[in-house]
Design goal:
single chain; 402 residues; mainly alpha; Growth Hormone, Chain: A; 16 helices; 0% strand; globular
Amino acid sequence: MAVGTKPTPSIAKVPAGVWVLGFVSMLMDISSEMIHALLPIYLVTVLGASMATVGLIEGIAEATASITRIFSGALSDRLGNRKWLAAAGYGLAAFTRPVFPLAPTIGWLVAARFVDRIGKGIRGAPRDALVADLAPPGLRGASFGLRQSLDTIGASTGPLLAIALMWWTSDNFTAVFWFAALPAFMALALIVFAVREPARPQAQRMVQNPVSLAEIRNLGSAFWWVVAVACAFSLARFSEAFLVLRAQNVGLPIMLTPVVLVVMNVVYALAAYPAGVISDRIGRKAVLAAGMGLLIAACLALAWLPSIGGVALGVVLWGLHMGLTQGLLAALVADTAPAELRGTAYGFFNLVAGLAMLAASIIAGVLWDIAGPQGTFLAGAGFALVALAGLLAVHGRISKPP
């Protein structure tokens, strides 16, 4: 169907299963971000960690999730079942929540973050593949954008709850970490009892060994171009922990530092669904390029405007960049990978992106210790400019949705 004749997507047309998975993600993100919003400050101010240590912890955490995804995604293709693998990942994350308030040392927190991210890795690829299975091709951008918006609403609510609880408990980190366990267990219950997985089409090819060389070749060159673009994007943006630390650096009180993630995620949530709808109509590449341009602007603002107003501008631009890129990249995987290998495709996609995020976070932490926040964010702008040039050099491979 020609672009001009496509029906206009609407939220009402997005399948019910995508809505449910979005609410599951939202609840887990409330839990995760209550902890994530405070953990960098807790590590630095209470446990005495260096900025390089923060970068290393965040990078290892995200890389762990990405490496795990490749195995869970491939297993979901082999078994033909995605829901219960995703539920296992949500369950593992929920049952590790009590470790955060009980951890006496940095080592315990690293271990808790590590296991929590294993849970994220187990659920990530099967969940995204399940969204792709549920969404019609003409609504993939809208479906992934809606799921991303709901997910990000949770990421906004979590820091808000953290702010309120820090005020109520007089900056009691431990109490806030205990409260964070509740939405995690709610998410687990919702995916177990409210999500229904569609039956595998009878005509769909069965996959015996999804990570064999032959099946990797079957993923196709268009998919690997998407992976290359995602890798460049990940090198350009490091952990949002550095946004929180930049806000504290310019004078924002510790109790209010979670507002950084609130603002970023509100903007992210508002932008993700419209970006998905637009990409369904005009193609993914132009929207992705606009998002990368916004990331360059965000990094420059965070580097050159060392004030609360400058950080606010940078955080808003950062959120817009996330809204215009993250859901679209997930939709591109569904656009380019064979249906029977979607779990494996999301696994490889997140593995490469996670390794790039590990490198980016470590580099950001080291640069902060050596050259300060300006050096960190200027390096981010440089990586983003390289990524944008690489995206623009990709001719025709990811321009139009199917």
